[in-house]
Amino acid sequence: MKTTTEQRQHWMSVLAKAPPETLLGLSEDAIKDIHFDIIRAPEVGLTQVRARMGNRGERFNLGDMTLTRCVVRSSLNTVGHSYIAGRDKTHALRAAQLDALLQDPQMGEVLMERVVQPIESMLADARASKQRETDATRVDFFTLVRGED
Amino acid sequence: MTDSQLQKGFEQPVRDAQQAFRQILKVMSEPGVMRTLDHAGALAELSPAALTTLLSLMDQTTSLWLSPSLNTDPIRTNLSFHAGAPCVNDPTDADFVMARAGELCSLEGLKIGEPEYPDRSCTLVIQLDQLEAGDDQPDLLTLKLSGPGIPGQRMLSLSHPGEALLAYLLERPDPFPQGLDLILVNGTRVAAIPRTTHVEVI
């Protein structure tokens, strides 16, 4: 099975958002037998985030964010890239290694099951509980017509 | 871009680029002096010294022209990945020219800078088959260098750099301070002949 761009975008996003300790813990076993050549060692830099007002208006510069990126080649001859928010180099390295392995059909299936899916459901749970917490204190504002001119 | 052709650039980008830059500065300011540049490995037909030079000096704002035999997929992919430098199709648009000896048929039209801004000129990086300091190599072409940065004179022996380039060095047609600077690489060695150097063939 050939992986599509969407699939790869999806797992790269999950790996980037994963809490570093969880990611390192879950993936330790899977990568220990594989050799990786480092093509671009983890390096910290800045990227400019751009946005559109209401996702429609003109594009504007929202601000800069710190970013760590890394590129490795695995002994299965796949190349993995990673871009991580923040300055955690071990996280960036591991995410790149996993991206490389996920592109291999056999390894990919196992890793999806053992690493990506657990993290994904964890992130979804965290998001849902945050959502509930926020909803509990929701205030709906409305304004009465005051009758002045 | 084909991912599988990517290879490692510098081990430690900041440190290696600074060290390489220092060596290039040394050979530029003392023409004829030879230094070792091996911070990056060889890349396809590019020698370690050539790749180290390009990775140290180039970024997104410097355009590069590659001679036909070097204009291959792995070289373009890696240079754009590690240095981000745009490749141009016309050498007259380039800030850097990377060529093997003899592949640059004409130096006509290359950027020589402007009288007010002589730094806006093209730097040639030429990969030679042989390059030695001194003049005790009978089968090589020996150049006698003199001028700023050289106490008296210095000898540099090299395999033929190409008719056009040799003619340029001997005639120096561009009015100073305009002109082309030349970096010579071979294997892991580098030497330079900047525009101020007077060149004679022995």
TrEMBL record, chain A:
Keyword Lyase in annotation = yes
Query: What is a single Pfam family found in this protein's UniProt entry?
Result: PhnG
Top-level division of the source organism's lineage: Bacteria
The entry's keywords: Lyase
Gene Ontology terms for molecular function: lyase activity
Q: Which InterPro entries match?
A: Phosphonate_metab_PhnG
Lyase listed as a keyword? yes
Xref: NCBIfam families = PhnG_redo
Its recorded name reads Phosphonate C-P lyase system protein PhnG
What is the source species? Marinobacterium alkalitolerans
| Lineage, uppermost ranks | Bacteria, Pseudomonadati, Pseudomonadota, Gammaproteobacteria, Oceanospirillales
* Encoding gene, per UniProt annotation: phnG
UniProtKB/TrEMBL annotation, chain B:
Q: Which Pfam families match?
A: PhnH
State the superkingdom.
Bacteria
A Gene Ontology MF term for this entry? Answer: lyase activity
Which keywords appear in this protein's UniProt record, sorted alphabetically? Lyase
Q: What is this protein called?
A: Phosphonate C-P lyase system protein PhnH
Q: Which organism is it from?
A: Marinobacterium alkalitolerans
